Amino acid sequence: MDISVWMMILAFFALLVLRVPIAIAIGLSTALVMLTVETMAPSDVASTISIKFAAGVESFPLLAIPFFVLSGALMGEGGMARRLIRLAKSFVGWIPGGLAYVNTLTCMMFGSISGSAAAAVSSVGGFMIPEMEKAGYDKDFSVALTTTAATTGLLIPPSNVMVVYSLSAQVSVAAMFLAGVLPGILTGLALIAASALICSIKGYGRGASTERFKFSEVIAAFKDAGLSLILVVIIMGGILSGTFSPTESSAIAVLYSFIIAVFVYKEVKLADMQKILLGSAITTAVVMFLVGISNAMGWVLTFKNIPQEISIALTSLSTNKIVILLIINAMLLIVGTFMDMTPAVLIFTPILLPVVKELGVDPIHFGIIMIANLCIGLCTPPVGTCLFIGCSVGKTTITKVVKPLLPLFLAMIISLVIITIWPELSTWLAKFA
After folding, report:
1. What is the arithmetic mean of pLDDT over 149-159?
2. How far is it, in rounded angstroms, from Cα 241 to Cα 234?
3. Model's pTM, two decimal places?
4. Domain count of the chain?
């Protein structure tokens, strides 16, 4: 590998160790290599990075990100979590250990509608963690379950990270959205199975509720939460029918969320919009900066033929695509522990996608593998965003949560392996896009 690439990698990790924000670390390490190894003039470095930055964010599909961010913020503030919890309770809350299943199902629904795992942790966790603790569940287990279950919303559409991957891999956003449905459900079911085993062993939820399943309560809860769930139907139905594009659907999602949160649920006041808009703008700015600056780093890596070198290195180990995918999974699991999902997708997709495509792996399938893999990183220290938020909401520490997190972590690993070796799970629905 070229010495300039090694310098960039070392500089990047050194800056991360110094707690430099990841976007700045990407930009500085890229500029350093251009200055010191390529001997470019500072003005040339600045202009090259600026051009690549602009090229990275100059994409119509990327407009979906600020709209989906704003839509998720509106739904998160609009009382959606409480209504979805009631709906989930009507289905499984009466079962022994049912609050664990309620937590997981709510996170799946909320995450899919809001498109944000972090929002799911804070919104659902704010309700469910205290309620589970009151019912006799261990608080640290409740935090661990909420943290892991929230990530399923990044697989179940709509999802901002799927838009980012689609841009990077040049694949259909609609196909990615559909491809994530079954893997997302599989991951949620794996977490439910793991939590059922834990509740059985620990005795959580036994006798916690004397309620029985009531169909009337299901109908009432569905009426209360139905307007929130319709958002997914509008988005996916409109895309699949060709009524509007994924980008246009994100704008429609904002309008729908605004009407529901402000005029129907009436839990968001017009005075709250300034705070919501500002928060959404900040989140969008961070994502867009990452997209632009990662494009500059990707250009350097491509210029140095790094994808080809990695392809040669991996295929020298094996020509079996399952073996290669498992090796890549192991590598991404490590990457996910110190790098957030968006920059990881932007940096590693151009490097790894050519490798797996040579082996006959569908880019849609690989995208789901990568996202499912990096979802696990959101739950692991030291950069586990969802883990930090969950501990903050639950008023506990990462050290205490790690032990109950391990069996849930194992459930996510098992679902990742199934997603990896069973491509039809991802590609079957994608064919209808």
Report:
1. 90
2. 10
3. 0.87
4. 1
By mean pLDDT, which of 28-37, 208-217, 238-247, 275-284 is the weakest? 208-217
Least reliable range by pLDDT among 109-118, 168-177, 303-312, 331-340: 303-312
Radius of gyration over every alpha carbon of the chain, rounded to an integer in angstroms:
22
Residue 6 lies in a domain: no
pLDDT in tens, 319-361: 889 999 999 999 999 888 878 888 889 888 988 998 899 889 9
Q: Which long-range contacts does 49-54 make (Cβ < 8 Å, 24+ apart)?
A: 49/293, 49/296, 52/292, 52/295, 52/296, 52/299, 53/292, 53/293, 53/295, 53/296, 54/292
Longest CA–CA span in the chain (Å) reads 74
Task: Please check whether residue 327 is in contact with residue 317, taking contact to mean a CB–CB distance below 8 angstroms.
Answer: yes
Residue 93 lies in a domain: yes
Cα–Cα distance between 228 and 351 in angstroms, integer? 38
Asked if residue 226 is part of any domain, the answer here is yes
Residue 137 contacts residue 204 (beta carbons within 8 Å): yes
b/e per residue, 139-168, with b = 16+ CB within 10 A? bbbbbbbbbbbbbbbbbbbbbbbbbbbbbb
Cα–Cα distance measured from residue 363 to residue 155, given in angstroms and rounded to the nearest whole number: 15
Residue 310 · residue 331 · CB < 8 Å: no
The helix/strand/coil state of 165 is: helix
- State the DSSP code for 41: -
Task: Find the length of the chain.
Answer: 433
Count Cα atoms within 13 angstroms, Cβ side, for 297: 32
Question: Does residue 14 sit within a domain?
Answer: no
Cis? peptide before 354, omega within 30° of 0: no
Residue 122: pLDDT band with limits 50, 70, 90: confident
- Residue 108 DSSP one-character state: H
| pLDDT on residue 211 | 62
CA distance 356 to 362: 8
Q: Which amino acid is at 119?
A: A
Provide the residue range defining the domain that includes 75: 41-430
Please give the pLDDT value at position 311. Answer: 76
